[in-house]
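Handout, section 3.2

Students often ask what a structure token actually looks like in practice. Rather than define it abstractly, here is a full record for TMD11 protein. The first block is the sequence as you would receive it.
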Amino acid sequence: FHIGEREEKCIIEDIPSDTLVVGNYKVQRWDIHKHDFLESAPGLGMFVTVTSPTGEVLLSKLYGPQGTFSFTSYLSGEHIICFQSNSTRFAVIAGSKLRIHLDIRVGEHFLDESAIQAKDKVNEVNVRLEHLIEQIHHVTREQDYEREREEKFRKTSEETNSNILWWAIVQTLILLSVGIWQIKSLRDFFIAKKLV
């Protein structure tokens, strides 16, 4: 994605609780003379801020033109990940565009292949088994989170349906009472005018 040099850009990620999130990014700066983005942006860094669903700041750190950040979610919900350059130029002068390449991996734990190759076969199987168990736990947490969201959505739907039913009953009672009142008023009017 592209941002201005002094602009802040935020991404919302829906993350289950107790989940590791790893993000890699690389910043490129627009070169006016070459009319292209430079591969590196020397001296340019990025402030990365991560906010939990309750508004608590989980991570707030300055990184270089490329870097890796990670955090663990303690609550399930929408986490906000914000990026802003550390450019010291004034907003009027800072008209340069930045391109950010971002890769966010949620809940993944990667095997270190070099460590596996150094071990013997028994240890390799053991490490792979631990990795599979970790992945199973991650899938279980994802399913629990989806179950929570589905239950919350079902409760909201049931409450909405109940409110609609009561509103329909109230509307019907109002219409019936207005109709009865109109009939009684007309009858009294006709009797008063001696038309009946």
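Discussion prompt for tutorial groups: The mean pLDDT is 82. How would you have guessed this from the sequence alone?
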